[in-house]
Design a protein that fits this description.
Layout (H helix, E strand, L loop, with lengths): L1 H63 L2 H6 L4 E3 L17 E6 L2 E6 L2
Antiparallel strand pairs: 1-2, 2-3
């Protein structure tokens, strides 16, 4: 029976070594997964920041081009009876009615 005891002892020793290797490998894989998650978090955070900055820039452009804010800066808009914006004096005909848009409202006018 001494071989049985020795055999059992070897199996237990081998089992413990395998168990340690598995735990060690598991911890290595766990670390790899954590590094991947950190990389994903960093990448997403950078992407969101980049898109936020770009969105903020677009918001500022839209704000600058807001027709009401342009009118509030002292500009006006002249619109012909077809609803088209008049851009040149040569587009104004005598006795034709136009709508003048200003910051506080609009008024129909006639060129004389």
């Amino acid at each position: 029976f001494p071989y049985t005891t020795l055999f059992r002892s070897n199996i237990i020793t081998l089992y413990k070594q395998i168990q340690k290797q598995i735990i060690h490998q598991f911890r290595k894989e766990e670390l790899k997964i954590e590094q991947i998650f950190q990389h994903i978090r960093f990448t997403l955070s950078s992407a969101f920041k980049s898109h936020y900055v770009q969105l903020d820039a677009y918001e500022k452009v839209v704000d600058l081009l807001d027709p009401h804010k342009i009118l509030n800066r002292g500009y006006s808009a002249v619109v012909n009876p077809n609803g088209e914006l008049v851009k040149k004096l040569t587009d104004l005909d005598k006795n034709e009615q136009f709508t003048l848009h200003m910051s506080d409202g609009k008024k129909d006018v006639t060129i004389q």
